[in-house]
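Quick check before the chapter quiz. The format below is the same one you will see on the exam, so make sure you can read both the input and the output lines.
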Amino acid sequence: MFMSKREKILDTGPRVCFFVQTGFGTAFTYLTSGVFLSGFALLMGAGDVLVSYLSVVVNICGVLILGLAPYLERFQSRKRLTVIFTVLSRTATLFIVIIPAVVPRKIQIPAFILAVVTAFTLQAQAAVALNQWMMGFIDEKKSGQYISLRQTLTLSVTVILSVTGGIWMDHMKGKYLGFVVLFGAAALMSVFEIILLLRTPDGAPYRPAGMGCRLRDALKVPLRDRTFMGFVIYILAFYLLLNISDSFTMVYMIKYLALPYKTVTGMYMIISLPQIVLLGFWGRISDKRGHAFVLKTSVWLFAGETLFMSFAAPKNWFLFIPAAFLVSSAANAGFVVAVFNRRYELMPKGNRILYDNFYTAMIGLGFILGPMIGGAIKGILESGAAVRSAAAMNGIRGLYLISTAGILLLQVIYYHLQGKREVCVHVKG
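Here is the expected output.
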């Protein structure tokens, strides 16, 4: 039964290619970012705030691609764009690991920041180009199930690498050679990924709607679309509120709770495993009830994640962190499917690069402002404290409570405004 449904979703060669590419791309990204990139930064002597940004660095760097959209709209080949930016992004990312070997000690952190920003800006643009290319081959009626299937593969790869990568880094005791091996494995994955992209059909030539060929159109055109902007503001606010605290989760577990790599990666497995089961469920619901319904429902669940994290401490982390991650798993399963499909549902088919780059940039602002606001609040909570380590720990726990209250308030406001809009539409009708 499951196999027949999967075959119906993967019923063309290009869809199969994009599905398999997800596995290689996920492997590369996981081995060179997240917990491993954070650990590498700590090895180089990076501070808490810098490490907190690394967990969402792709989203942050997405702001920088806004100005590229008017020029990329002129490219008719989505395949060419994807391959170019994938090659550039993978090369720039792999440079990061050799910084300690080729850059003087005094400027390693600035060089690290520059390399990370360059690499992940290119990654953000590669992802936009790939999504544009892929959406040309996806049946809109099956988009929820297809994206959920791709995400299932993503999570499966993540689970495998969480176990193997965590065991490896604990065996290496966090030494530099351990990171070199991880990045070397990522390089091999990138070779397979690029070969597969080159073998995937290009699809029909892209035809822009006739606008969006000037730099000012990168802002002007999407801003005029009220429905699309309402969606963007909602997602931007959500990411900002979530990342006031969530961006500090990695440094909280590694530095303040002193959890080993295999434990940290094991925690992220708790997110991944239930999602593998729930993604198919959310995908079917999204196709039947609508992507907007699943999006709003999943956002409520994130408040549960941050609430559980606020109770986590050295003596009870084994209770509250797994609980938080399980709730996050249920929330993420619905959110990733719904937010991906909803944004393309609201975009006009012409000028999609323009709209997608704008969306990526705006969401990136949420990932920038969230940790900044969180860091400022954390500093206030820690000020005047006698015991700095304890103060820092409790400061981060306080941030989770602030995120919880903010997300709940956002949902109440959003539902209120939506209700007023429905009343207005009914009256006008």
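If your answer matched, good. The radius of gyration is 21 Å.
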